[in-house]
Design a protein that fits this description.
mainly alpha; two-stranded antiparallel ribbon; globular; binds zinc ion
């Protein structure tokens, strides 16, 4: 199972072709609008899409680099939710979000009036979006959905924990961002009654 070898930066040439199929009507050139105001972009939808795709590819490469530098070496096919958590904690050192500890006088203050020595972390929203992109990238690169380490229960629980603790530490509520999460039903027992 070596279909995961796309981490080599040299093999990215095929994926640099951004999917334009949404607006690609072959050889059909629409007539220009009468008032040629050139300020409007051709298609904002595809721009947004490719920005997401670019970000996803960058994230995927970052994770691949993380795996390559991992000691002991770690292949994607052996990667579990625990390794994803390891990766997320590793990213915290590059974080820019101050998360106050319980001992900090500014705990629960969204806008502290003075600096404090509390650590900087990755904001929950960034991690949540990152995991979403990596989860999609994993399957686009040949990973099986049921083996997706980014969809592991431990990762979901960790993200929820980060969200709650950051909400408390900064006195802000993430509830307004609440959205429907796909609920994974518990696996059904096999229906064949083996005696
Ligand atoms: Zn603090």
């Amino acid at each position: 199972m070596n279909s995961f070898q796309e981490f080599d930066s040299s093999s990215n040439s095929d994926s640099t072709v951004i999917n334009l199929s949404a607006g690609n009507t072959s050889n059909f050139t629409p007539p220009p609008p009468p008032s040629s105001s050139s300020s409007s972009p051709p298609s904002s939808a595809s721009t947004t899409l490719s920005r997401y795709e670019n970000q996803k590819r960058r994230d995927w490469n970052t994770f691949g680099q993380y795996l390559r530098n991992h000691r002991p070496p770690l292949s994607l096919s052996r990667c579990s939710g625990a390794h994803v958590l390891e990766f997320l904690r590793y990213l915290d050192q590059f974080g820019k979000t101050k998360v106050h500890t319980h001992l900090c006088p500014f705990f629960g203050h969204p806008n502290p009036p003075a600096p404090c020595p509390c650590p900087l972390r990755q904001a929950w929203g960034s991690l949540d979006a990152l995991i979403g992109r990596l989860r999609a990238a994993f399957e686009e690169n040949g990973g099986k959905p049921e083996a997706n380490p980014f969809g592991a229960r431990a990762v979901r629980l960790y993200l929820r924990e980060v969200r709650d603790s950051q909400a408390k530490a900064r006195g802000i509520s993430y509830e307004k961002k609440k959205r429907k999460r796909p609920q994974h039903p518990p696996p059904l027992p096999p229906s064949n009654n083996a005696s």
